Amino acid sequence: MVALIFLVSAPILNLVIPYSQAGGNFLMKFHPASWIALVLFLHILQFPAANRLDAHYRNAVFLFVFVCVLLGLQGKGAVMSSLIDVQITPAILLVALSRLPLEQARAAIALFVWIITLNVLLVALEFVLRTPILPREFVEVIFRPAGLFGHPINAGLLFCCAMLLLTRGAVGTFARRPLMLAFLGGTALCGVRGPLAIAAAIFIVNVIKPTLPRRSAIDYFLDFGVLFAVPIVVTIAYSVGAFDRILSLGVWEESSQSRLFIFDALDWLRSDEFWWGIDSYDRMEELTKSATGGRYIENSFVFITFAAGYPMALLASLSLTFLQAPALRRSLLFAMTFTLAAFATIAFTTKGSSSAGIALAGYWIWRLDYERKHRVQSSP
C-alpha cells in the first residue's frame, strides 16, 4: 500500500485512466491502493482491536465512512471518491500499521522516506531541465518542479513529512542528517513558501534540540556539520535560481493573502448552495474564480463547502482532526504542517499523496510515544 500510494501517483494514473480528470467510469476514480485497503479492512474487522492505536484509527475510519455515505446519498460522487482516496485509505493503512510490531512498522515508514528521497532526485532533474517529467494540468509562468506528485505544494508537503519522520528515527543515524539537508534543498527547489518555512523550522529545531538524543560525539559532529553545510546549499540554490519565484512574488503577496481571505468566498453562495453545495460544475468553477479573484480555492474546508455544503465540510474536518488529534497534541511542528495543509492547500480534498504522507507522520509520532509509555509502564 505504501509503495502504491506514493509511487503510483495521480499524474501517473492519469496516463492510463481518467483518475483525477473529468469524465470516465466512476470505478476509475479510485486509486489501486483503495481497493487493497477495502479488502484489508474487511479482514481486520474479523479481529478485535489490538491496542489503543488500532481502536482509535478504526473509529476514524468509521467516521470517514459515515461522511462518505452521506455524500453518496446527496449524489456527490466526485467528492466521495476523493475523500475515500485521501482520507479513508490512509486511515486504513494506519490501522494496519498499528497491528504490526514496531520494527516492521518502521520498515514501512522507512520505505516512504526512501520514496521521497527518490523524488528529491526527480525534482532536481526537473529543475535542471526546466520541464516536468509527468504531464500536468496547470501551467506556471515560473516553472517549479514537483517530481512524482504533480504539484510543487504536494511535493513540498511530503518533504516536510519525511523530515518529521527523520527526526523520529525513521532511518539510521548516518543517513538521517544528509537526508534532512536533501529534503530541505528539495523543498527550496519546489519554490513553495509555506512548506519551505516549515521545513526550515523542522531542520533548525532538530539541530538545536533533537527529538532523538545525541548519544555520541559523532552525532554532534554530523548535526553541526550539516548545519554548517546549510549556507553552502542556500548559496548554490540561490545561484541556480531556486528562489526566483519567491523573490519575485515576495512573502506576502496576492497569492498568500488569498489563503487568509478565502472564507469571504462563502458569502458568494446562495442559501441552498451554502447548505447543500453547488450542483453545476460550470457554476462552481465560475463562482470559485469570481470569489477568489481568478484563483482556485486553496482551502480544504472551503472547497468541500462549495462542493457538498457547510455541514459536510464541518463533519469531514472534524473527522480529519479526530484522526490526527493524538499527533497534534504531541508535536507542534506536526501541528504546523497539518494546519498548513488544511488551510493553505486542498491536500485533504483532492486526489494526491500529501494526505497519506501527513497521516504516516502523525501515526509515527504517536506510535513512538505510545511504545515509550508502554515500556515504562511494563518495566519492573
Automatic annotation (TrEMBL):
Keywords: Membrane, Transmembrane, Transmembrane helix. It comes from the Bacteria. The chain crosses the membrane at residues 32-50, 57-73, 79-97, 109-129, 149-167, 179-208, 220-240, 301-320, 332-365. This is O-antigen ligase domain-containing protein.
